[in-house]
What we know:
The protein is an all-alpha fold. It has two domains: 1-37; 48-149, no CATH class. The chain is 75% helix and 0% strand. The protein has helices at 3-15, 18-33, 39-67, 75-84, 97-108, 113-132, 138-149. α6 packs antiparallel against α7. It is elongated.
Amino acid sequence: MNNKFIIKLVDLLLKIDKSSLEKLKILLIEDSNNKKTNVVKKHYRIKSSKINKDKKELIGNLPIILMNLDYFKTNQQLAKFAESLNLKITNWQKRSRDEIIGRIIIEVSKFDYDRIYKLNSILNKLLGKVESGKMNDFFLEWDSVIKQIK
């Protein structure tokens, strides 16, 4: 093996949390002991379908939420929402509401699974509060939740 490959492999491994590495090790051991089924492929196939499901749910719900004037009354609130997700909407003052929403959705669709899962969970909790009538201002509630997880 060449050094560049090993360096890249080590960099990738450093990005993975310890519990995930331990799970992967167990799956590899199980897989090597059981030649009939490929446990690792099966696990990642399941996880991949979950990622796609969560992404579709989030991307499907975002336009409805972002276009709702009860939740986001101004373009500035949309821009602040984007900033809370570490997205920069340049010149938001000169952009239409639809353009800002489109930018947010496109950028969110590029998030990794953990960010998609976390955002989806937060939005579902907030929407649950809205439906139960326990929330007055979606934007303010969103802002406080984001501050808690940062």
